[in-house]
Amino acid sequence: MIDLRDFKVKQIVQIPNMQTSHGGVFATPNTEYVHVSSKIPTVWGGGYAPLEQYRERYRGASAWLAVDKQTGRIDLSRSFQIELPPYNQDLADAGKLASDGWGFINSYNTEMATGGNMEGKPAIEAGASKNDFDFLHIINWKKAEEVVRAGKFEMRNGIKVIPLKTAVAEGILYFAPEPRSPHGVDVAPNGRYIVVSGKLDPHVTVYDIEKIKQAIAQKAFEGTDPFGVPILKFDAVVAGRVAVGNGPLHTQFDDKGYAYTSLFIDSAVAKWTLGEPYFTGDRAFKLVDKVSVHYNIGHLATTEGDTVSPDGKYLVALNKWSIDRYPVLGPLHPQNFQLVDLTGQKMRVVYDMPIPNAEPHYAQIIKADKLKPWAVYPAGTDIRTMQRSPHATQRGKERLERRGNTVEVWMTAARSNFRPDIVRVKKGDTVILHITNTETIRDATHGFAIPEYNVQMSIDPGETITVRFVATKPGAFSYYCTEFCSALHLEMQGWLLVEP
């Protein structure tokens, strides 16, 4: 969980009953929950089970993690999960407006292939691509809330879990056929349309939440999966299909009823029309434009394209490869982001930008004026709590205390010195340093590093940090500022003296 006042991580939560996720985190419209779906099934309950027991012992999970809106933290005590069959659940999206209260998850490997390409069995990629269809998971999370309140859950590894049989019996979980190997599910701004792309199908498939609700009410099922989950009839829930090109992945939206889908194999973005109320008749669900991008686009982002009110002016192509776009500086190459102008009749690439180090994945573009970031922390802020630290120190009130084998120091950092600039301890002492950056202006960040003790911190103006370590190595160790801060930056240093 990241606080948008300072864009720093405040909480990392180990989600029970899951080992993997494909980065598909979404928030429900009022941030009641953030949702994370498992990617690869795990042995349900933990421990070991042979792959021969895959169908019986392995399961996926849909995790609905409750958010405390006052603190911005996840509260596992109010969270719940839904047990899922041992397919590979993938990316997800939240319903909104017409589909508020619903969640949607892609899946692949409904074949439940487990690999074994060195044992005479098909590799997972081949075994998981046999079926013509996989299953779009359709989850009524509002009903799941009611089921949890009614006590129809079991505790599993510290979180409430709705068993798969209960999810089916209570009308929480439904499937709809989707083209095989899908890799994106995206909800349109009005919440009515749910767009799915199958990597091995040149179409995008558009589901209609009104059709889904009607099909559920009329029990328009074509049967159940091996675990008893009702499968809605494909024709009963699909509003339209659009041939967009090769390798469709993800879809974003603008404010005029257009959708934009990335084409991994074509290295392009396709622009197409949604249905009512945006477009009607033969203008609905129609490809209208395509622009080439460079190269192998995966995700993409339009301005506020995941909201109920997109801006519709720009799109950023988050291309996974750059091929020959930039000079070679070694085997690790940058990815290439491209800015696409959507304001004209035809889409137009207007800018390229290299992005280093990591695969570009889900991203959001939001208006800066919706953020209220802090330019400087209030004096003595502990950024974990965003409150004043009990260890905050004012300039001139620094001190050092010894209690047995513990040495605790209340230190300040300001241009261009640390106070105190000498700390004396003995080998074996536990050393606790509380360091407050007493600067009050922007950009006056200080660093603090101690060589050979693996201590390296960046301290923003007004921030208080705490460093704890055991002085295991005797010697004289300089500590120093690692963030350029003034003309006398190099002189901003001190000594940790560890006596034998």
Helix-strand blueprint:
Layout (H helix, E strand, L loop, with lengths): L1 E2 L4 E2 L16 E2 L5 E5 L4 E2 L10 H4 E11 L4 E12 L3 E7 L7 E7 L15 H4 L5 E8 H9 L4 E3 L2 E4 L1 H6 L3 E7 L2 E6 L5 E6 L4 E6 H9 L3 E4 L5 E3 L1 H4 E6 L4 E6 L4 E6 L4 E6 L13 E6 L4 E6 L11 E6 L15 E7 L6 E8 L25 E2 L4 E2 L10 E5 L2 E9 L2 E3 L2 E5 L3 E8 L8 E5 L4 E5 L4 E7 L4 E6 L12 E7 L1
Parallel strand pairs: 7-12, 31-34, 33-39
Antiparallel strand pairs: 1-2, 3-4, 4-6, 5-6, 6-7, 8-9, 9-10, 10-13, 11-12, 14-15, 15-16, 16-19, 17-18, 20-21, 21-22, 22-23, 24-25, 25-26, 26-27, 28-29, 30-31, 31-32, 34-37, 35-36, 38-39
Keyword list:
39 strands; 7% helix; 500 residues; Immunoglobulin-like; 2 domains; Methylamine Dehydrogenase, Chain H; mainly beta
Verbal overview:
With 500 residues, the chain is mainly beta. The protein folds into 2 domains: 2-370, Methylamine Dehydrogenase, Chain H; 381-499, Cupredoxins -  blue copper proteins (Immunoglobulin-like), CATH 2.60.40. Helix content is 7%, strand content 44%. It is built from 6 helices and 39 strands. The strands form 11 sheets. Strands 3, 4, 5, 6, 7, 11 and 12 form a 7-stranded mixed beta sheet that branches. Strands 30, 31, 32, 34 and 37 form a 5-stranded mixed beta sheet that branches. It has a 4-stranded antiparallel beta sheet with strand order 8-9-10-13. The longest helix has 9 residues, at 141-149. The protein is globular and about 75 Å long. The model has no long low-confidence stretch (mean pLDDT 96).
